[in-house]
């Protein structure tokens, strides 16, 4: 089954890539309308929008999905329900297709809710308490955005249809359209895990690693960014300022949190959150095309980074703590090479795929006139990205070997390596190819010398700080203040506590009070139970239901006597 779906997705990916190139060169857009029914003069139609953006994104999603399915063949080898897992992944990809292809809110909702439902099933795939909690947190956080989406659908009834692509340019200052845009921003914030809905993203790491690779690169978390890219024409300046502030804060918070995290998959999840903040920040600065460019380059290297992490976790007997790793370059050379290349792309090291989009984003931000806060937070976030990437490299690849003496760490997973090797060339070369495709005229950005080299300077500072911080934190003695501070930063500014205990604590406490007072307390004793005992004593007719023959005979005799008397 893995090979069937894998090859099918791979062929579809190549077809869609060639189509997107053709559409881009010829500046073509195709709209296909499939009529459903008409209700109250409103048409329910399924619209398929084929342009270079939807086709290119679909080809990237399909290619990553095919590699992930090949990778799952070996990763999920011992699983008794492997075919069910593969089918759920395929459903997940098809939900994303629904979302990408349609500019109609009703049909986007099919994919949007499909992503939410299937992601819940995949997060709780390994059935234990931690997975159930993570799945519930993921599902309920996303439901907030789904409610906003449904409200937007209701408000769009005012326009007589749900195909928002027809209304974006004409209804720019319309009050109803501004409200719909606000609801769309809320929906995108929950799906892309922006503050204060960030806590579900690291929790979703309870899913199997192939799912994490797919979710965190090109499907679930990017759905919100893609929706806002489509909606970007009608976002007012107030919306953009709000989005910029939230996204920049998310970017900073997740970069800071990743430097204090020790779980390998959670570090990579927080780096995804940081990159999502970067995409939405540049989108809020008015560069939606650039946000899309970073979306597709990020999808490639993040998918491979999770695959490498999965291979490392497998080799270390399902150990995810980076403090147990070290010196893996000797045991897993190819995996470590791939992992390092992905880390370089994530940091924006020149001529890797991430560099072309990330450097362009930072230079466009430097060129725009906004304020010192945005300028500083962008560069600090870049420094933090490099710091946690090099900290991860130090702990897992360079540092001393800290795992058990009795181990079987070797590069033996050939099928997984083939799946990973399919992506490595794209990670290295596709950034420049996409750059040539999307920007046929090269973007010339002229800045003063110090502003121009600021990115490179922050990368070097982050590199040094990440390596030094790793050595420092290994030998660092914790006192109470430092422990509190580190746990505050490592727990994403206490956001998981706020979004779980902070939301439900009062309701659970009131429920306990209610149970103690009513169900198990004096009110029950003097109320329902007392009434029951009193009635039981007053009406002693329990004897009738004891099935004694003499009772029935006596009742029959009384009945006959009653009939004779009448």
Automatic annotation (TrEMBL):
The keyword Mitochondrion applies. GO terms for biological process: ATP synthesis coupled electron transport; electron transport coupled proton transport. Keywords: Electron transport, Membrane, Mitochondrion, Mitochondrion inner membrane, NAD, Respiratory chain, Translocase, Transmembrane, Transmembrane helix, Transport, Ubiquinone. Coiled coil: none annotated. It comes from the Eukaryota. Residues 102-382 form the NADH:quinone oxidoreductase/Mrp antiporter transmembrane domain. Its main location: mitochondrion. It catalyses: a ubiquinone + NADH + 5 H(+)(in) = a ubiquinol + NAD(+) + 4 H(+)(out). One of its GO terms (molecular function) is NADH dehydrogenase (ubiquinone) activity. PANTHER family: NADH-UBIQUINONE OXIDOREDUCTASE CHAIN 5. This is NADH-ubiquinone oxidoreductase chain 5. It comes from Macrohaltica subplicata. The gene is ND5.
């Amino acid at each position: 089954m893995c090979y069937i779906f894998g090859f099918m997705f791979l062929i579809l990916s190549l077809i869609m890539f060639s189509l997107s190139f053709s559409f881009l060169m010829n500046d073509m857009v195709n709209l296909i309308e499939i009529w459903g029914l008409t209700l109250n003069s409103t048409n329910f139609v399924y619209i398929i929008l084929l342009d270079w953006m939807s086709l290119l994104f679909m080809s990237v999603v399909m290619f990553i999905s095919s590699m992930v399915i090949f990778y799952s063949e070996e990763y999920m080898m011992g699983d008794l329900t492997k075919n069910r897992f593969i089918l759920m992944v395929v459903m997940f990809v098809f939900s994303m297709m629904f979302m990408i292809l349609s500019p109609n809110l009703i049909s986007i909702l099919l994919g949007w809710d499909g992503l939410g439902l299937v992601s819940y099933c995949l997060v709780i795939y390994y059935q234990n308490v931690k997975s159930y909690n993570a799945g519930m947190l993921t599902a309920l956080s996303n439901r907030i955005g789904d409610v906003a989406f449904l409200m937007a659908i209701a408000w769009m009834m005012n326009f007589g249809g749900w195909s928002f692509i027809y209304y974006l340019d004409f209804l720019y200052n319309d009050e109803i359209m501004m409200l719909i845009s606000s609801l769309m921003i809320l929906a995108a914030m929950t799906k892309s895990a922006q503050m204060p809905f960030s806590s579900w993203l690291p929790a979703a790491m309870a899913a199997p690693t192939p799912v994490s690779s797919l979710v965190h690169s090109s499907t679930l978390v990017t759905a919100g960014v893609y929706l806002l890219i489509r909606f970007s024409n009608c976002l007012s300046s107030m919306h953009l300022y709000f989005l910029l502030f939230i996204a920049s804060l998310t970017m900073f918070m997740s970069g800071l949190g990743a430097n204090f995290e020790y779980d390998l998959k959670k570090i990579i999840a927080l780096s995804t959150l940081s990159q999502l903040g970067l995409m939405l920040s540049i989108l809020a600065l008015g560069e939606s095309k650039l946000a899309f460019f970073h979306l597709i380059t990020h999808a490639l290297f993040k998918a491979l980074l999770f695959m490498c992490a999965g291979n490392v976790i497998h080799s270390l007997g399902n150990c995810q703590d980076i403090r147990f790793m070290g010196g893996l370059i000797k045991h897993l050379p190819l995996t470590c090479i791939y992992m390092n290349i992905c880390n370089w792309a994530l940091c924006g090291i020149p001529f890797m795929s991430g560099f072309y989009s990330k450097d362009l984003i930072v230079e466009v931000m430097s060129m725009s006139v906004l304020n010192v806060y945005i300028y500083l937070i962008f560069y600090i976030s870049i420094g933090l990205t490099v710091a946690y990437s090099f900290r991860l490299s130090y702990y897992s690849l360079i540092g001393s070997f800290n795992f058990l003496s009795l181990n079987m760490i070797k590069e033996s997973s050939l099928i997984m390596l083939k799946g990973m090797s399919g992506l490595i060339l794209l990670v290295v070369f596709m950034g420049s190819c996409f750059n040539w495709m999307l920007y046929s005229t090269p973007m010339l950005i002229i800045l003063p010398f110090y502003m121009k080299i600021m990115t490179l300077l922050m990368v070097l500072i982050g590199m040094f700080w990440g390596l030094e911080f790793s050595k420092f934190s290994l030998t660092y003695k914790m006192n109470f203040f430092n422990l509190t501070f580190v746990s505050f930063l490592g727990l994403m500014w206490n956001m998981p506590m706020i979004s779980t205990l902070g939301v439900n604590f009062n309701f659970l406490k009131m429920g306990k009070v209610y149970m103690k007072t009513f169900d198990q307390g004096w009110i029950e004793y003097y109320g329902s139970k007392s009434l029951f005992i009193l009635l039981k004593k007053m009406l002693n007719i329990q004897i009738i239901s004891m099935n004694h023959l003499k009772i029935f005979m006596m009742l029959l005799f009384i009945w006959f006597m009653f009939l004779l008397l009448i």
